[in-house]
């Protein structure tokens, strides 16, 4: 009986240590993003600056589109992803001295703010929204684009063979 109990304690110890390492990893990443760079502002400070500065450019329809674009992101990380994407869109708009946010600006910011490993989901979401990706091919990861095309061709072939 005590052998079983000791094994459970050891197992529980490893589970807790694993969870603490995972939590610590994400906290450390957040800490690094909050660290000031050479200009005295952190990545998150600049992101917040761009969002606040471009806030008058954001209309309800652009906010709605942003919410739709981040739907594939798990709910736990959705707010962080939305802020990162909104920050990149706002940065592009301010650098180009735009008076309004266009679909082109939103799509470019969305692509640039999304990690390359997630471009497959990004492409899928943009195709669902019937957005032509041709003008943005230079921004997309070639590997995920080829994988997405291959998956699309396989789906078409399966549908045709049925």
- Strand percent estimate: under 5%
Number of helices: 7
Unreliable stretches (pLDDT < 50, length at least 5) are none
Summing up helix and strand content along with how strands pair, one would put the structural category as mainly alpha
How far do the termini sit from each other? 58 Å
Pfam family, one: DUF2621
Keywords: Membrane, Transmembrane, Transmembrane helix
Protein name: DUF2621 domain-containing protein
Organism: Shouchella lehensis G1
Q: What does this molecule look like?
A:
Keywords: Membrane, Transmembrane, Transmembrane helix. This is DUF2621 domain-containing protein. It comes from Shouchella lehensis G1. With about 160 residues, the chain is mainly alpha-helical. Helix content is about 70%, strand content about 0%. The chain has one domain (about 40-160). The termini are far apart.
């Amino acid at each position: 009986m005590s052998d079983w109990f000791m094994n459970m304690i050891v197992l529980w110890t490893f589970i807790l240590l694993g969870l603490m390492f995972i939590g610590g990893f994400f906290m450390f990443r957040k800490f690094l993003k909050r660290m000031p760079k050479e200009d005295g502002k952190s990545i998150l400070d600049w992101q917040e600056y761009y969002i606040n500065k471009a806030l008058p450019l954001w209309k309800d329809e652009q906010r709605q589109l942003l919410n739709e674009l981040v739907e594939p992101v798990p709910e736990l990380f959705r707010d962080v992803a939305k802020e990162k994407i909104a920050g990149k869109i706002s940065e592009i708009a301010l650098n180009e001295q735009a008076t309004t946010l266009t679909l082109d600006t939103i799509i470019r910011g969305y692509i640039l703010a999304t990690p390359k490993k997630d471009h497959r989901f990004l492409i899928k979401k943009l195709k669902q929204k019937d957005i032509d990706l041709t003008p943005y091919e230079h921004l997309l990861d070639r590997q995920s684009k080829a994988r997405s095309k291959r998956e699309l061709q396989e789906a078409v072939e399966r549908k045709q063979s049925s």
